[in-house]
Amino acid sequence: MEKRMLIIDTDPGIDDAAAISVLLSEPSLDVRLIASVAGNVGIEHTTNNALKLLAFLKKDIPVAKGAAAPLMRENRFATNAHGMSGMGGFDFPEPRKELLLENNAVMNEYKILMESEEKVTILTLGPLTNIALLISTFPEVKEKISEIIMMGGSTERGNIGIYGEFNVSIDPEAAKIVFRSGIPITMVGLDIGRKARLLVEDLEELEQSGDPGVMISSLFRSYDGGHVEEGVKMYDPSAAMYLMEPELFETKDAFIDVEISSPLTIGATVVDYDGTLCEKRNAKVCVDVDVERFRRRYVQRVADITR
Ligand code: RIB
Ligand code: CA
Question: Taking every annotated instance into account, which residue ranges of this chain make up the domain Inosine/uridine-preferring nucleoside hydrolase (predicted)?
Answer without folding.
Answer: 6-295
